[in-house]
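Protein modeling request. Please complete all fields; requests missing the sequence field cannot be processed.
Requester role: graduate student
Desired output: 3D structure, C-alpha cell encoding
Chains: 1
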Amino acid sequence: NSDNPDIANQIRRDFMTPEDYFNNYLPKYITKAVNNLSPELIWKFYCEVAHLFERNNDVVNARRALVNSERHAPQNLYWKIWLHGARVELSCGEPSNARKLLVRSMLLVPKKMQSLVLLDISRFEEVLGNVKKARYIIQKAKLDTDFEWKVLLEAVLLEMRAGNIDRAISEARSALQVRV
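Delivered output (180 residues):
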C-alpha cells in the first residue's frame, strides 16, 4: 500500500543518493560522534571526517572539518592537520594552497618527525612533475634525518615511479650500506 508512511520512508532510505546522505544525515552523525568522544580524540576524528569529504570531492566540507580539527587540537599537533590539509588541497587541484600548508607544517613539526613532512613535500613536487626537486628534497631529508629508513625507501620508490630502474637499484644499494 503506497499510503503507508513506513513503506514510503523505507523506500526513501533504500534509494537515498550519496548527496542526500552527505547533506541530510552525515552532519547529524558527526555531531553525535563528537559529543561522545573524549576531548583528546576530537581533532583526529575531524581529520578523518575531512578525509571522507575529500574522497567524495566535497572540498568545502573537507576544509571545514580541518578547521574544526585545528580548533580541538593541541598546538603541538597543528603540523599534522596542516599536512593533512595540504593533501586535501593538492587532491582538489589547489597546489598553491597545498604548498603554503606544507611550509606551515614544516615550521612547526618536531625535529624527530621532520622526515614525514619532507616526504610529503617530495611527493608533492613529484605529483607536480618536479622530479628533480623531489629528488633534491629526498637527498636533503636523508642528511637531515640521519638516513631514516622511510626516507631511504622513498628514495628508491621515487626512482622506480620515475622509471629510473638503475638509479632505484643504486639507491637501494646505498640504503643497504647505511642500514646494515
